[in-house]
Amino acid sequence: MKRELIINYVKENLADERTGHDYYHGLRTAKLSEGMLLKDQPDASQTSRDIAFTAAMVHDTIDEKVCADPDRVLAELKELFAQAGLDEEAQDNIFFTIEHMSFSKNIEHRYQLSLEGEYVQDADRLESLGAIGIARAFVYSGKHDDKIYDPEIKPAKLVDHDQYRNHEETTINHFYEKLFKLVDLMNTKAAQAEAVRRTDYMHEFVDEFLQEWNLD
After folding, report:
1. CA-to-CA distance for 90 and 105, rounded, in angstroms?
2. pTM listed for this prediction
3. In what residue span(s) does the HD/PDEase domain sit (predicted)?
C-alpha cells in the first residue's frame, strides 16, 4: 500500500486544524494503533496493519468537530484508498471504523468494530489521556470558549450525542465526564496497561489543579 498518499492527504486536509485533531494527532494515532496491533498480534498480516494505520491516520478528516462537509471527504477518501492500493474489503473495514469509532457515537450504543478498528479506537482514546491528552483538552476548550473550571458547574452525566455536544462544560469537568472513564472502555490488551498509566498521570494533574484552586 502507498502510505505516502494517505499521509500527504491528511497533512493537507488538516493543515489548518487547531483543536488537537491535526495531522500530528493522526500520525501518532496511526503509529500507536499499528504498534499495539503488532504487540498483541505479532503475526498480523500486512493488510491488517495497513487497515489499522490508514483508519487511524484519516479518522479525523471526517470528524464533525473539524469537518464541515464529511460526505465530500468520504468521496475523496474512496478515490484515495483505491489509488493507494486498498481493496474493497479493506476500504469497507476502514469506513465502518472511522464512522463508528468516536466516543460520542458510542454513548447510547457501543458499536462492534473489527479487530483493526478496536486498535484504532483504543489508540485514539489513548491520545485523549496522559500529557498529550491534557494539552489537547485545554486547547480544544480554549478554541470553544469553555471555562477552565467553575465549581458552580457540576460534571454532567452523558446520555446521548446531542447532550454531549451541547451541554455547558468546563475543561476540568471534561476529565470527569469523559477522560477518566476511557480506561474502562479499552478493547485491547496492549491499550489497557497504557491507559492505566496515562490515566494515573491525569489524576495527579487534576488533584494538583484542585489543590492549587482551593486555597481557602
Report:
1. 22
2. 0.96
3. 18-138
